[in-house]
């Protein structure tokens, strides 16, 4: 044990000493390494996850601005973040305290209220409720804490006051407050600044300065503060709410890749300045865009698809599988081809799990035996998958190794020999089922489906009996009739898998 710790510590020291701080800009936290490596945009490489308490971590996700319905791009982001959270909790036994900020006060929300001739708060509540319904339909776990901007105005104003008092921010003539980037040398650590030239706004001292508070404008909701009336800027909201919940540092801060700059950059700058620290968020997690024909899906491009409309065509499990077989950091292409591939993978695994039950309960006279090779394959897959998850949550490699394990096990199940290996086959199925469930796949039918399922079981079994007899007699007419039943069932979203022993079926979208 001491030797392993020494080796791991030596590797950490090597990583830490690869580049001086000014170049890497990422500080290795003090604490306990949990054996997981994650890509960090500040370090521009995979870095070890180190927690103060090896069993406890804090996590904040930037949530939606609730002025409209969530779309499939949001679904991709939050499903992938949900998968990562589940991995940390289920595979590495981390007690993850999760929070999400909801922007329920914004220019777009005010505008939507004017368009609909209703109060902006009504707009925000309606779309937030719809957002949580969409997340539930995708089996995305709701965060433990939900913070709303409208409920934290005092916290936000106090945070801004602290920056003004420390001279890291300045008040302009119209009552606005800007963060002074010239006083924060580390500005640009998350992403190189696009333009740091002369100020384009007379109110700003420097071009990259950003608004913490917007001065009062007639006809807009506003709040009174020591420096004047107005409302908060976008970036300050998350910093203030996170600091109230988690204090001067947060372990994981997550969101879409489009938030890396300027939103997360500005969060890091103002939070470090407020807390007088060199690093606020230890690990930034950014999810790649969901693309349609190489174009990102966004409301501004008017190419979005609603979450309910996609779930009418494909199941939530199918969409989650599409996320699992992609890399969370890179762009994900959305197309029917991609979704059908995910659906095929999901159905193959469902068929396998059903076939195992049939195999283990088959009526024969053979005595069960162990298959050492299959048990060895299972152990290797377990070890390799854990290593893949340790390496920046590589779920695609996990699914691929599981499919290979299924192929090897199917050879045993479908072999026309007298060997019978129920124990290792059941252990394989149990492992696969556990992993998929930990990834957030449901794989189960509701109790209301039991009667329907029993009827389908009976129909499929009857068809199998007829088909088996027809094969023995080479009765083409009956075989054609069986094919018609199979095709008819498929048109009704029931796919039958014929086998030599007993058939199985799965529901498809």
UniProtKB/TrEMBL annotation:
Q: Where is the tRNA synthetases class I catalytic domain?
A: 56-342
Does Metal-binding appear among the keywords? yes
- Give EC number(s), comma-separated: 6.1.1.16
Q: Name one GO biological process term.
A: cysteinyl-tRNA aminoacylation
What broad class of enzyme is this?
Answer: ligase
Name what cofactor the protein needs.
Answer: Zn(2+)
Q: Which Gene3D superfamilies does the record associate with it?
A: Cysteine-tRNA ligase, C-terminal anti-codon recognition domain, HUPs
Know the name of this protein? Answer: cysteine--tRNA ligase
Q: Which organism is it from?
A: Vanessa tameamea (Kamehameha butterfly)
């Amino acid at each position: 044990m001491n030797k392993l710790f020494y080796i791991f510590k030596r590797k950490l020291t090597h990583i830490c000493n690869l580049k001086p701080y000014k170049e890497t800009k990422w500080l290795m936290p003090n604490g306990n390494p949990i054996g997981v490596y994650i890509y960090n945009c500040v370090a521009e490489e995979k870095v070890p996850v180190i927690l103060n308490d090896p069993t406890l971590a804090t996590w904040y996700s930037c949530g939606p601005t609730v002025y409209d319905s969530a779309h499939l791009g949001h679904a991709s982001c939050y499903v992938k973040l949900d998968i990562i959270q589940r991995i940390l909790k289920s595979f590495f036994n981390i007690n993850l305290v999760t929070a999400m900020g909801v922007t329920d006060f914004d220019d777009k929300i005010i505008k939507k209220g004017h368009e609909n001739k209703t109060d902006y708060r009504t707009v925000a509540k309606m779309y937030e409720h719809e957002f949580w319904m969409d997340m539930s339909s995708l089996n995305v776990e709701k965060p433990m804490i939900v913070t709303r901007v409208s409920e934290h105005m005092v916290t936000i104003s106090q945070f801004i006051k602290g920056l003004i008092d420390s001279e890291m921010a300045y008040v302009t003539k119209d009552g606005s407050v800007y963060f002074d980037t010239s006083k924060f040398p580390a500005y640009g650590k998350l992403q190189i600044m696009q333009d740091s030239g002369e100020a384009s706004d007379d109110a700003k001292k420097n071009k990259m300065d950003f608004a913490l508070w917007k001065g009062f404008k007639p006809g807009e909701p506003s709040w009174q503060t020591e420096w004047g009336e107005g409302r908060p800027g976008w970036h300050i909201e998350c910093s203030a709410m996170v600091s109230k919940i988690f204090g001067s540092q947060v372990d994981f801060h997550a969101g879409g890749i489009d938030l890396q700059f300027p939103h997360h950059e500005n969060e890091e700058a103002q939070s470090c300045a407020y807390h007088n620290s060199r690093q606020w968020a230890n690990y930034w997690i950014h999810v790649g865009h969901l693309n349609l024909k190489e174009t990102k899906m966004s409301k501004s491009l008017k190419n979005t698809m609603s979450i309910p409309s996609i779930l009418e065509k494909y199941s939530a499990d199918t969409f989650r599988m599409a996320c699992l077989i992609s890399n969370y950091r890179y762009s994900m292409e959305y197309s029917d081809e991609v979704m059908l591939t995910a659906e095929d993978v999901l159905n193959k695994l469902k068929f396998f799990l059903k076939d195992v039950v049939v195999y283990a309960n088959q009526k024969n006279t053979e005595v069960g035996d162990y298959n050492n090779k299959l048990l060895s394959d299972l152990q290797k897959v377990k070890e390799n998958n854990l290593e893949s998850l340790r390496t920046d949550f590589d779920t695609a490699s996990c699914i691929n190794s599981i499919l290979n394990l299924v192929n090897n096990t199917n050879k045993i199940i479908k072999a026309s020999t007298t060997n019978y290996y129920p124990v290792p086959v059941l252990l394989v199925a149990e492992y696969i089922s556990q992993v998929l469930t930990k990834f957030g796949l449901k794989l189960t039918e509701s109790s209301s489906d039991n009667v329907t399922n029993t009827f389908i079981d009976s129909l499929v079994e009857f068809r199998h009996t007829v088909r088996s007899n027809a094969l023995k007699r080479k009765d083409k007419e009956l075989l054609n009739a069986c094919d018609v039943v199979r095709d008819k069932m498929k048109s009704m979203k029931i796919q039958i898998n014929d086998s030599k022993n007993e058939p199985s079926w799965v529901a498809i979208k």
